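Worked Example 4.2. Consider the chain below.
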Amino acid sequence: MISTSETGVSYWRIFVNQIFLFLALLGNSALFVTFYLGWRIEDASSLSEVARQHVSIHFLFALAAASFALLVHAIVLTYFMGTGRWIQETSDAYHFDEAARRRNIQLKYQVLPGMMLCLILILTTGAFGAVADPASNTQMNYADKIHFTLALTTLLANLIVNVIQYNAISLNSQLVDQVYQEVLAVRKERGLDSPA
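Applying the procedure from the previous section yields the following structure tokens:
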């Protein structure tokens, strides 16, 4: 059962919002640290041990940060799929109006383009990062400048998309609460929650 505070806000909604906020902050912080580590590499083409070590550290952080940022987007998609399914099945079982389901779908499709943009940017940034590495077999003119521009764009886009996702999750959580309250009202009206 979803417990509520005195203001009527469910603890579940607060919990979901805080989890996403924590994950998004962690993901964006990891991307920022990766950006900083790449920015501080003075001469990636240098064969010195220090330069190679900086490139290696940047590369490892980039792998971890990219994986985590993509994981956050996957969690958001899974959240919308799960709550959408719950709203659909609950609405069918209790013969509720389809408005809540339509709103859930609208919120899900509001965040999907941003997720896809971030996915493409993260993968493209990583690809150009690999090409920008002087130790790479594949070389390209201006790959380092393209990688830097893509990294900055990815950082900003991911931050903006996470804000949009947070807003959509907050609205969807309210929607889940609304449907849940309707379920409680119907069950109480039908005497389904009374002791035996």
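The chain has a mean pLDDT of 91. The two ends are 19 Å apart (CA to CA). Compare this with Example 4.1 before moving on.
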